[in-house]
Write a structure and sequence with these properties.
Membrane topology: Multi-pass membrane protein
GO molecular function: ABC-type oligopeptide transporter activity; ATP binding; ATP hydrolysis activity
Structural class: alpha/beta
InterPro entries: ABC1_TM_dom (IPR011527), ABC1_TM_sf (IPR036640), ABC_transporter-like_ATP-bd (IPR003439), ABC_transporter-like_CS (IPR017871), P-loop_NTPase (IPR027417), Type_1_exporter (IPR039421)
CATH topology of the largest domain: Rossmann fold
Strand content: 5-15%
Largest sheet: 6 strands, mixed
Radius of gyration: 34 Å
Keywords: ATP-binding, Membrane, Nucleotide-binding, Transmembrane, Transmembrane helix
CATH class of the largest domain: Alpha Beta
Protein name: ABC transporter ATP-binding protein
Length: 575
Amino acid sequence: MHDDARRSGRDVLRGVVAGERRRVAAGCVLGASHQIGEALIPVLIGVIVDRAIVHPDVASFARWALVLAVVYVFLSGGFQLGSRAGEYAKEYAGHSLRMRLMRRVLDPRGGASTGRPPGALVSVATEDARRAGSVAFVLPLGFSAAVGLAAGAILLLRASVPLGLLILLGTPVLMGLGQLLARPLEHRSHAEQERAAHASGVAADLVAGVRVLQGLGAQRAASDRYRLTSRASLDATVRAARAEAVQTGLMQALTGVFIALVALVGGRLVLSGSIGLGELVAAVGLALFIPGPLQVISWMAAEVARSRASAGRVAEVLATPGDIAGTGAAAGAKDPADSAAPGGDGAPRGSLRLSGLVHEGLDGVDLTVAPGEFVGVVVTEPAHADTLVRCLARRVDPDAGRLELDGVPFTDLAPRSLRSRVLVAEHGAELFAGSLRDNITAIGASTHPAAAAARADEVAASLPGGLDAPVGERGRSLSGGQRQRVALARALAADRDVLVVHDPTTAIDAATESRIATGIRELRRGRTTILVTSSPALLAVADRVALIDGGRLADEAPHEELVRRSSLYRTAVLA
């Protein structure tokens, strides 16, 4: 499985380079020109030494000095422009990966967050995306360093064939050793990121549930859990740092031995008279130049190893299968989005049908909701209610049975198309950082009627700034009842053909709940509405109520009639 992750990681890195190929190519060309200029500097200095000392010639000296100045200008410009192109490529590549990850996380098929806490996904979408994207900056530097080594070798061959051959043969060996030494770092870097993501996930969960933990008096247990997770992350980071230190140290040692060998051979050639003073200066300068590209190549090997580990984690998220099957309408299937609106030439829209629904406690539920009908659903088992809501939202596909919208199976509809018609407002829906108005209009444009129906206008009236008042992250500046009213207003403002709401008023007082029930009924008149709840106030305004017990439809009738004739219903609703 680790090999599969590595292959997927390589595919991600190839995609990064392909997506930024123009900037990567520009970085390679400009960086190579810089490295060639760096390699030419010692040679030009050697020529100038010859013209100034060995064979004095003022005019020639001036010309070569001018050439040296021009080369300095060009290599400096190449470095600046190449670094700029590389930085742009890195940032755009990281941004592109983050966007791909967000599209996968927000994909209507779901599945990306399965088995991953939010903190882990945040870590992948930030740190891992940044590291994977940095390969677009690292590769041009490595290519430029390789070109610099080649240029140095060629220039050395002109001065001395033995020195040139030594570098040409020794450099590939050194680069191969760098790749071998980087492999342990890649494995440990992957483990480091896994541990860091897990620690981030635990921290996010603890912060989100801090009030619950305080209420349960479980702060110590939570602290001990995070301490262990954080320690494991620290240990993984230390192991990765040790691997990097060993890899870097060994590469520097090998580079030092290599340069010492070059210096030894060059010194013997000078003593034998095979090269002159200018050539000696050039050889010494090139010998001092060579460690730079070699160190860049060593650094590149370590960075590519880190990038590959992070790219593997990115690939795992991108390749996660969806919780639901299918991505589009089946051939020949009718998309209800093309149907006429109520009152037009076509049939009314918004009918729902559940046929033999079987999934996690639901055992053959049959329920039909006509277009424009206002239906209450009471489920005696809370877990079964959650399952029903998840199926209606198509977060999962049932094990058996089918759901239909206007006669078309859910599985024949693209998830995005389905959710443009059917909105499921689950219990405990989160608010976002921003104003009340921003939260209400997040998926709709009609603020005032929806706010009035959900009595969110009363929340606005109680806050400085009204609808423009900030609500804080996840709406934590509001009470539980206020958050529910704002979330309900957001669902109503979306004005979907079908609206399913699950327990929208559990934290709201009875008097306000009754006014909300009337507001929902009036605002949703002519639109299909399903309330999955046990609230008598909400059920009383429904056209009829379906009672589900033991995973099956047990009874259905108006609220008042069920209260009179069903003891099971009275227990579920009035107890």
